[in-house]
């Protein structure tokens, strides 16, 4: 496999290496003017500097149509200026129906349904890496790091903006300090730039530089910004000190906590930035959406810690970095119970390791080489074991001091392609396990942007004290990326020893899969449709060792939205029998599930209305079997006014007659027929006094029961089938049934009292219960839940942004 891929990569690089991206229309160029006096950022253009500067204008439609000029009633003009500290923008946005302007108050990075204006800056002009700055008509800021068409709104930098309005439209001033950007060290800067205006009540979006939606990616259609020369930016050094205090009450036990720490950002030069977190505090991160997990795989949670989400686009290359590994459960957490002797019990077993510090260095050279280095250190963890007779305690180490690091090299070329090298490493102190993963990636478009070739080859190494285990995985995909008709072919492979789970996440290995698709889509409105896409796809899944079929399936899907912003779609799949090698929890053993059919559908109404809704439904049926699955999701949303909105979500799932792993007995693998039902209620509400302060409510209650039929236990045969089992041997103390109920409530007040600075007052209430009473009703289960001790937590966290240059000027004055 590696040799075959090597030849493919060499062929692609030689054949397409000298190509460059083509545009279907002439690229716009705008020359920026240097200024000596800085405008006040108030949304009012009363400074002399704005009176004579040229404007970027003549916007054209990108949604829903293609290239239509913006009407005079909504004419949009942008003026640009710069000095040694920042780049400035003055934007005039006409609106002939000012009462129709949508200006919903929201907090940072939350656009909702407001009109907005965005600026995309590609300081390396490489057609791929951009920073997006957005301001809504209400004044809300949003910023994102973009890689191609992927947006990462966890990226946050400090910049200024202000909005004003009158009967003719709305007006916007923006100041983006160079400290918020990374750019080449060069006397003359050549930046890609794109301006975009969303007119919500018309459901139209206009851009400055034309975008051909039928070819390539939107990031390859920026205009060119010239004229920024000989800038001498100030030192890029900022501090984010914080103070945090909390009181926690649980089961008559009250604890008080006070902590202080700091994050730091330092611009090593114009291109590279160092981020550090010293004495990190993650006490106010959002709760995880925990569910009843009876499957063979760990539940995957999103990252809620800002340091691990901001500016990590380089480190996520190749999907080898699952940041929740850092500070997660100790590697020996489950070994504590196994280590107990007779008359001993586990007294304390930490479920998390403490993060001591972390840093990341990232940036891109003038030649397009992106470099990223990440490092984090976690503290050791110990479990306490008590001898119940002597009262003597002993400790066992469940996790040593551990170091995590990532190195990424990402070379952009031809303004549409890249090759990358990624290495991740975990080193643990002492005789534990270490791990190292290396990957080579390529993402290459041809000259006309009509075909994309992408792939990855990954080598994993897990090092035990007495043994090293090496694994390999690869991906190769070829896609047609131009025109109405598109298609693609993909191959995925991993051998049986592939393992990246020390710092990444890979739930399965030992596979050899191939998949393909073809689709038809439109790029301009047709009839009642603004857009629709029809797709047909198929897959063939195989085990690598032994080489046997796992599954073959095919299906089709449809997605559309109308001129009135009503969206709907769905898909239908048909699958052959499925050999599941993981549900058995035993190497090289599988259970065979019957052939099945699957259907999914959804509808979504116009979010511009005060009331809107999303409805999704799924159904899966396994032929000649009791096994069926149903799921329904209903999500109404209410916008009471420009300050108050609420989203409620109700989800119910039913799983009937699923052959599921129960346990092992006398060398036999025991399965049972399981009925699983789940019910989830969640509520998200926001009341915003302004774009700088608001109250947020987040609530979630998840209930699930798993009930195994008492007379339908089976043993797994070598051919993957089940045979009836004498369940008299299965006693009450091995009851596999489960009743799971969890309740989380967060109520917070957030106030951004200065640029980059905020105070958050948070109240939390959480309750959890799990038992084997699977036949209880939802109301009875709630009664049991509320009988459990509740955790109450009240915390206040204040973060203050300190710019080194402002601090220096203060001391000098």
TrEMBL record:
DUF5916 domain residues: 233-811
SUPFAM superfamilies: CBD9-like (SSF49344)
Record-given protein name: DUF5916 domain-containing protein
UniProt source species: Christiangramia antarctica
């Amino acid at each position: 496999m590696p040799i075959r891929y090597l030849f493919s990569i060499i062929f692609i690089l030689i054949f397409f290496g000298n190509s460059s991206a083509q545009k279907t229309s002439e690229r716009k160029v705008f020359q920026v003017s240097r200024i000596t006096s800085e405008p006040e950022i108030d949304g009012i253009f009363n400074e002399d500097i704005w009176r004579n500067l040229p404007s970027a204008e003549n916007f054209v439609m990108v949604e829903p149509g293609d290239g239509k000029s913006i009407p005079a009633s909504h004419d949009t003009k942008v003026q640009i200026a710069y000095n040694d500290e920042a780049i400035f923008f003055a934007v005039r946005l006409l609106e002939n129906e000012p009462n129709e302007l949508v200006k919903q108050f929201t907090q940072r990075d939350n656009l909702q349904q407001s009109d907005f204006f965005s600026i995309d800056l590609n300081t390396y002009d490489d057609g791929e890496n951009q920073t997006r700055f957005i301001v809504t008509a209400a004044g809300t800021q949003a910023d994102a790091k973009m890689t191609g068409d992927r947006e990462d709104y966890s990226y946050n930098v400090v910049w200024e903006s202000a909005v004003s309005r009158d009967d003719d439209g709305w007006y916007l001033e923006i100041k983006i300090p160079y400290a918020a950007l990374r750019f080449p060290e060069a006397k003359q800067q050549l930046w890609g730039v794109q301006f975009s205006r969303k007119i919500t009540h018309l459901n139209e979006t206009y851009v400055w530089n034309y975008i051909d939606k039928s070819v390539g990616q939107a990031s390859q259609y920026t205009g060119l910004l010239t004229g920024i020369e000989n800038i001498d930016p100030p030192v890029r050094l900022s501090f984010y000190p914080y103070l945090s205090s909390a009181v926690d009450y649980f089961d008559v036990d009250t604890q008080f906590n006070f902590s202080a720490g700091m994050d730091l950002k330092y611009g090593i030069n114009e291109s590279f930035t160092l981020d550090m977190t010293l004495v990190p505090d993650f006490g106010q991160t959002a709760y995880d959406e925990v569910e009843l997990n009876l499957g063979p795989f760990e539940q995957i949670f999103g990252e809620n810690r800002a340091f691990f989400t901001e500016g990590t686009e380089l480190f996520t290359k190749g999907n080898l970095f699952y940041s929740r590994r850092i500070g997660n459960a100790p590697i020996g957490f489950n070994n504590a119970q196994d280590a107990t002797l007779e008359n001993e019990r586990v007294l304390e077993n930490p479920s998390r390791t403490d993060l001591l510090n972390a840093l990341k260095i990232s940036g891109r050279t003038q030649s397009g080489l992106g470099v990223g280095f990440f490092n984090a250190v976690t503290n050791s963890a110990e479990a306490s074991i008590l001898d119940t007779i002597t009262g003597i305690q002993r400790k066992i180490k469940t996790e040593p001091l551990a170091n995590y690091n990532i190195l990424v090299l990402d070379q952009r070329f031809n303004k549409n392609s890249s090759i990358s090298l990624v290495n991740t490493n975990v080193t643990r102190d002492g005789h534990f396990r270490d791990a190292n993963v290396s990957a080579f990636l390529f993402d290459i478009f041809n000259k006309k942007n009509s075909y994309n070739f992408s792939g990855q080859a990954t080598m994993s190494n897990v090092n035990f004290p007495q043994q090293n285990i090496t694994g390999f995985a690869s991906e190769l995909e070829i896609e047609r990326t131009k025109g109405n008709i598109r298609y693609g072919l993909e191959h995925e492979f991993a051998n049986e020893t592939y393992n990246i789970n020390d710092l990444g996440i890979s739930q399965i290995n030992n596979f050899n899969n191939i998949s393909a698709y073809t689709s038809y889509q439109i790029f301009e409105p047709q009839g009642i449709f603004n857009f629709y896409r029809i797709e047909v796809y198929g897959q063939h899944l195989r085990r690598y060792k032994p080489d046997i079929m796992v599954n073959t399936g095919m299906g089709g899907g449809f997605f559309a939205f109308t001129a009135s912003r009503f969206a709907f779609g769905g898909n239908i799949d048909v699958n052959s029998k499925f050999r599941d090698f993981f549900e058995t929890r035993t190497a090289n053993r599988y259970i065979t599930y019957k052939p099945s059919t699957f259907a999914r559908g959804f509808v979504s109404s116009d979010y511009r209305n005060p009331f809107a809704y999303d409805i999704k439904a799924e159904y899966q049926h396994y032929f000649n079997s009791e096994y069926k699955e149903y799921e329904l999701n209903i999500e109404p949303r209410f916008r009471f006014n420009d300050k108050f909105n609420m989203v409620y979500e109700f989800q119910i799932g039913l799983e009937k007659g699923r052959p599921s792993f129960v346990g092992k007995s006398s060398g036999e693998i025991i399965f049972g027929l399981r009925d699983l039902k789940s019910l989830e209620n969640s509520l998200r509400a926001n009341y915003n006094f302004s774009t700088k302060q608001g109250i947020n409510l987040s609530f979630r209650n998840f209930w699930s029961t798993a009930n195994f039929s008492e007379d339908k236990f089976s043993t797994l045969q070598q051919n993957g089938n089940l045979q009836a089992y004498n369940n008299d041997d299965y006693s009450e103390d091995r009851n596999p049934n489960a009743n799971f109920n969890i309740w989380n409530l967060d109520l917070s007040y957030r106030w951004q009292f200065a640029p980059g600075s905020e105070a958050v007052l948070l109240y939390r209430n959480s309750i959890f219960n799990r038992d084997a009473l699977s036949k209880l009703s939802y109301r009875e289960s709630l009664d049991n839940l509320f009988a459990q001790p509740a955790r109450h937590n009240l915390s206040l966290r204040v973060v203050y942004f300190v710019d080194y240059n402002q601090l220096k000027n203060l001391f000098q004055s």
